[in-house]
Amino acid sequence: MSKGVNGSGGGLLLRLYLRLLLACYPPSFRERCGDEYLRLLLHDLAQTRGRHKAGFLLSSSSDALSGGLRLRLGWRRFPAVSPSNRRHSPGRHNMLDQLHQDFAYALRNLVRRPGWTLAAVATLALGIGATTAVFSMVNDVLLRPLPYPQADRLVQLRAYQPDRQRLREVVSYPLCQRMGEAQEALEDFGCWAVNSQTVEVEGGAHRLLTGIVNWQVLKALRAQPLLGRSFNARDDHSDAARVALLSYGFWQEHFGGDAQVVGKILRVEEIPYTIVGVMERDFLFPDRGPRLWVSMAGRPRTPNINWLRTLGRLKEEWTREQAWAHFEALRLQVSKGNDGGTDELAVRPVSLMETLVGEVRPQLWLFLSAVAAVLLIACINVANLLLSRMAGREREMALRSALGAGRGRLLAQMLSETTLLGLLGGAGGMAVAFMVSSAVHSMASDFVPRSHLLGMDAVAFFFAGALSLLVGLLIGILPALRSSRPDLSGGLQEGSRGTAGSLRHHRLRAALVVAQIALAAVLLVNAGLLLRSLQRLASTEVGFETADLLMIRPSPPLARYRQPESMRQFYADLLQRVRGLPLVEAASMSAGVPFGGVRMSNQAWPQGGNLESEGETVDLQVVDENFFAVLGIGALQGRLLDSRDRPGAPPAAVVNETLARRLFGEDAVGQHLLVGRPPRRVEIVGVVPDLRLYELTGPLRPMVFEPLAQHPEQAFPDILARTSPGHAAHLASEVRNLVHSLDPGIPLVGLPTLQDELRGRTANARFRTLLLGAFGITALLLAVIGVYGVVAYGVAQRTREIGVRMALGARRLQVLSWVVRRGLLLTAAGLLLGLAGALATSQLLESYLHQLSVHDRFSYAAALLLLFVAAFLAAYLPARRASRTDPMEALRCE
Questions:
Q1: What pLDDT sits at residue 577?
Q2: Is residue 798 pLDDT above 60, yes or no?
Q3: Which of 182, 181, 175 is CA-nearest to residue 158?
Q4: Given Cys at both, which of 262, 399, 617, 722 links 228, Cβ 3.0 to 4.6 Å?
Q5: Half-sphere exposure of residue 52: CA atoms within 13 angstroms, side-chain side
Q6: How is residue 630 annotated by DSSP?
Q7: Beta strand 292-294 with 672-675: parallel, antiparallel or unpaired?
Q8: What's the pLDDT score for residue 878?
Q9: What is the mean pLDDT of residues 552-567?
Q10: Contact of 652 with 685, CB cutoff 8 Å
């Protein structure tokens, strides 16, 4: 007792009075719980304000008589009349005081066990933080509306042939106009494109993303300029003056925020554009963030060049359902072009939001589902820790119930502690969320749309707070329900032996561990599938050696190099200088470097084939005679392109194995091929192995290589150089100086190595695998901790039993196997459930797997074996400790 109680006459009287209250209870109760009961009475008396003390003492007398009578009669359920929960108590009178007391008591309990609290808070912080970071990404990309008024009414139209159902991502300018004239549901319907173009400002030339838009697109976006004016209908005429709009960032960076910028001249691809306005600071264009926008004046308007996307705004009087039905019935008659016929095209509407995020939507929801599973495992882990702790506190709960605390009061006290634990985990989770969000932003900014929005914001903070409260309730509900119904007499008796709760909580804790293992197995199997797929993707054979290849992609302005002779001379001089560099072994020119050029396709038929039928779709590549030498490949049949394939010579071509096999069987050399409409006739002079020059995934397609010398219209070839081993990246600065020495006004699109380009192609797959892999490893660790906790707790609760077994002759190996067997049984049950869950959920990964089945046996076996071995080690450690128990020490502890 306190000093004040023991050290005065009033204290002696109070002690005597409290002893009289305790005398109402049976002797067994006084012997086991008397001191704790007196401590609780003194604590509640100290919390009672002066004028309420008499009422407290009076109500304590009635509670003691009632509780003692019920105990003597053997009743186990008692009304809620404990000293801290009575009708006349100020805590009952003021709910805020009661909450304050509950949380203060919960905080003292957590501080009293710092190791246990730190483990629980760290586990929750990991789960809450990762979930908050992934939710923030989902919210920023998928849920946050586009930054335009009534953005849900912005619609793109795509054309397709009804018999093929293949949507055209881009359309020609005449087709865009035809769409606008034929439809009735959209207003402000126009077209746009985003290209990389050379822009000259003070300080030099820059290669920048430039938007090419007509005035209706900006009107549909409800975009208003900060300075000057926007585009209007006159600016779209083919012979109109060329005008430009600047983004706010471009205006600040290159013009210093000059308010007199309107009217100045800007040169884009050597063509002068008059600046007519500057857009607002927060204006964002739908695609990739152009730095400036130019009008449609002077742009190609022929029906056979598809390069534009469409955009319109749904009219106010039209509902989405009405508009979609209207477009479903719409048919367009358009000219085929050269043969004078017509094609029937159908139209399909797609919301702008779906256009931007449709490809990544399933992937982001997959991430959120996976991290939610990790959070659930973390909650189960902490709930198991709480069950262990609550089992040790069963004596306390039984005592409180014996003193009159009702079930609701016990629930409130236990949930206050778990809620506080959840809030502490949420506070730590915010730090985790910031780190995860920063890492995700750096890895995903190149391929996740709207990546400029990624980061923590007020919505993420609110989500983290709400999630922390939910987690606090989730982890506490089962332990609280179990502890709010204590077996009074049994709990007190078990408490005297030190084995409280060892039997009552066993099944529930075992079920939670099985659930942990099952969830971890699902995540590990799916992560294993993605890892195997990434390995196969990264090791995909492209048909040539990718190391030490440097891609050089200059972009001479067409206005300055309008004559084909000047363009060819520039590339010839540059190629000669690149070949002259000491570390360059070979160099060639082609219409596009591997994995970095535009894919050109057309139809092809063998000579004598039916031109009315749909021919074989082939990829076209225009290369010089050194292209195959740079790649290090030779001819399988015939010869490669060489100096004989010059202008004026019979058109020649080299084809790949796939085309030769499909169209000509074994012997293709000397055969003639008809390519395109109207068909041009080329002679096949050689066959080369199949190469992957455009994509790593998908089936190999037929490919035709034609000599660059016979295609003078190919104005913008790229240069591919093979360097000495390990020097490709180091030559970038020297090549840049070569280009600038020929023409300082020519920027380079980039100087990546081919391996850099390939890493970019696999960046999304690496990000997906890394994120799900991290979730899987986290789930594995949490599940292992759960197995270890259950087995270790079981060993601690059965110390006396183990001691008795060993005293009766049980060997260490028997004890070891007995303890390990329990952990492995739980693991086996969890693995079976996890296997079923993995078989069901792996179907969601089918579109992300490269040359791999969703039922890949190796991935399943490796993941389940890893989890089994980890669980075995988790069970072995406490089992090993149990097998070394000294029987005399175990029995003496009891």
A1: 92
A2: yes
A3: 175
A4: 262
A5: 17
A6: H
A7: unpaired
A8: 87
A9: 80
A10: yes
pLDDT the model gives residue 77: 41
Residues forming beta bridges with residue 788, ordered by sequence position: none
Measured between alpha carbons, how far is 649 from 617 in angstroms, rounded to an integer? 26
Where is 718: in which H helix or E strand?
Answer: strand 718-723
Q: Which residues contact 432 (CB under 8 A, 6 or more apart)?
A: 125, 126, 128, 129, 130, 132, 133
The encoded tokens of residue 574 equal: 């540059």
In this structure, the number of other CB atoms found within 10 A of the CB of residue 22 comes to: 18
Better-scored residue on pLDDT, 623 or 615: 623
Residue 84 confidence (pLDDT): 41
The whole-number average pLDDT for the span 290-308 is 88
Lowest mean per-residue pLDDT among 349-358, 450-459, 838-847: 450-459
Q: In which band, very low, low, confident or very high, does the pLDDT at 83 lie, cut at 50, 70 and 90? A: very low
Of 724, 722, 742, 755, the closest CA to residue 587 belongs to: 722
Contact 162, 168 (CB under 8 A): no
Tokens coding 76: 């186990």
**Cα 491-509-129 angle, rounded to 5 deg:** 120
In sequence order, the β-bridge partners of residue 705 are 621, 654
What is the DSSP pairing of strand 680-688 with strand 652-656? parallel
> Which of 26-35, 69-78, 176-185, 783-792 shows the lowest mean pLDDT across its residues?
69-78
Tell me phi and psi for residue 242, to 5 degrees: -85, 130
Write b or e for each residue in 606-622: b if 16 or more Cβ atoms lie within 10 A of its Cβ, otherwise e.
beeeeeeeebbebbbbb
Question: Token pair for residue 852?
Answer: 């791999």
Give the percent of the chain with pLDDT over 90: 45
**SS percent in the chain: helix, strand, coil, step 5:** 55, 15, 30
Q: Which amino acid is present at 238?
A: S
State which amino acid sits at residue 264: K
Cα 248 from chain centre: 31
Sign of CA dihedral 742, 745, 749, 755: positive
* β-strands 584-590, 549-552 pairing: unpaired
DSSP output for 487-551: -HHHHHHHHHHT-TTTTTTHHHHHHHHHHHHHHHHHHHHHHHHHHHHHHHHHT---SS--TTEEE
pLDDT at res. 217: 95
Task: Give the residues across from 620 on adjacent strands.
Answer: 600, 704
Strand partners, 706: 622
pLDDT at 205: 77
**Could you tell me if 190 and 179 are in contact, meaning their C-beta atoms sit under 8 angstroms apart?**
no
Q: Is the pLDDT of residue 837 over 60?
A: yes
Q: How far is CA 486 from the centre of its chain?
A: 45
Cβ proximity of 668 and 721 under 8 Å: no
Question: Residue 324 corresponds to which amino acid?
Answer: W
